[in-house]
Design goal:
By secondary structure, the chain is α+β, with helices and mostly antiparallel strands. It is built from seven helices and 18 strands.
């Protein structure tokens, strides 16, 4: 099975055109993909840069909007699975999410299952950022409500978990998804700042700790939104259950697809040899749920 992460560049076009550019990058690969992961809010300029501008709510889409529609058409054309982040308009007025949908090779949505058995159509980012760090500001809390938990999307190519950007910093989130059977963690990000030095080491650690594949897609280059210009560090990567980097992009590559083979038998094999799941002591971790 071939997994692909698409690293995008600065966004200056319509969502439909951005989707087309992503799949043009995929078409440059020698082999047909089975899974494609796109970056966080990839079809829009990343607008959560401290402006708190209500006009950006006009960019929100439903599952019938241009981003999901265009991605579904391409998933059907390539007969592959696609993880499609988007700015989701909720059912209630004023309800918005930083979300991702999973599209199957027939172009249809694949539902996710939460720990309580409830079915959901999208993963909605749970850890919503709001910070000022050095010269950068992030105001996601102005735009997004947090999600309702961590669903697993069971597909014919394996069980997918999704963590969007800031979500990845919470080790509990990785383990909750792994304990539900996730074999591939899809990590759409829009990451900037000095965190570049930790990007690959941390993803290697999280993949190895949870003994699963991680497919991470980021944005690259300098992108203006209003008077704010933000530089994203790229470095999209695919990591094995043993923490090996199987493929990576550099800091400058925009609209570039990277690919690596993913054999889920390696997850089962590694979990037999690396005994973290055998040696878990849940009764000792109760403080995590109480604090």
């Amino acid at each position: 099975m071939l997994s692909v992460a698409v690293q995008t560049g600065p966004v200056r076009e319509t969502p439909t055109k951005v989707v087309s550019r992503c799949f043009e990058a995929v078409s440059e690969l020698a082999d047909k993909p089975d899974l494609i992961v796109l970056p966080e809010l990839f079809s829009l300029p990343f607008f959560c840069v401290g402006l708190a501008d209500p006009h950006f709510f006009d960019w929100a889409e439903t599952l019938r909007g241009p981003t999901i529609t265009a991605a579904s058409e391409n998933a059907r054309r390539l007969e592959c699975h696609v993880v499609v982040p988007f700015f989701e308009k909720g059912d209630l007025p004023g309800e918005h999410y930083n979300a991702a949908a999973v599209i199957g090779p027939d172009g249809e949505l694949i539902m996710g299952t939460l720990p309580d058995g409830a079915q959901v159509a999208t993963y909605r980012k749970n850890a919503i950022s709001s910070f000022t760090w050095q010269s950068a500001s992030n105001d996601e809390k102005y735009y997004f409500r947090p999600g309702q938990g961590f669903p697993v999307f069971r597909t014919e190519i394996g069980a997918l978990g999704i963590l969007i950007c800031y979500d990845r910093w919470f080790p509990e989130a990785w383990r909750v998804l792994a304990l539900q059977g996730a074999e591939i963690m899809c990590v759409p990000t829009t990451s900037t700042g000095k965190g570049a030095e930790l990007f690959h080491p941390s993803l290697r650690t999280w993949a190895a700790q949870n003994v699963l594949f991680a497919v991470t897609a980021n944005r690259a280059g300098s992108e203006p939104v209003g008077e704010v210009v933000t530089s994203y560090f790229g470095l999209s990567c695919i990591v094995s259950p043993r923490g090996e980097v199987l493929a990576k992009a550099d800091r400058r590559q925009g609209f570039k697809a990277i690919a690596a083979p993913v054999d889920l038998a390696q997850v089962a094999e590694a979990r037999r040899e690396l005994t973290m799941y055998r040696d878990r002591r849940p009764e000792l971790y109760r403080l995590i749920g109480e604090k």
